[in-house]
Amino acid sequence: xxxxxxxxxxxxxxxxxxxxxxxxxxxxxxxxxxxxxxxxxxxxxxxxxxxxxxxxxxxxxxxxxxxxxxxxxxxxxxxxxxxxxxxxxxxxxxxxxxxxxxxxxxxxxxxxxxxxxxxxxxxxxxxxxxxxxxxxxxxxxxxxxxxxxxxxxxxxxxxxx
Length: 161
Hints:
Helix content is 73%, strand content 0%. By secondary structure, the chain is mainly α.
């Protein structure tokens, strides 16, 4: 009986850690390269345990990120939900790819999230397109293999099912 609850605790702990990393201050010159920590954590759990972490989890986590960043409520929630849905929809295929192929897919999903955020912010008249906005997609791709390995180790260590 204790096992299912502890699995949720570890999933939400990793999401909260990703939220913390998403708002952590960085030097101004490194800000465009900030990886999409929350998207990586949500996509990992959607690929590994689609019955535990899904679009609803992504929506709630995205709303928390909107509140933490003080942005338009629902914009990042929608972006996280769309990216997570696309990953969960093809989770069986993506799981069979090599780690570097997965990194490319995660980069594409991050780009979809960035474009969704830009589109939604543009509707409210708050967005201007700057190519530096998309550098985080590259850093997300490069960091994915390590995030994947760490979260897989957590999942196996604590037997999260």
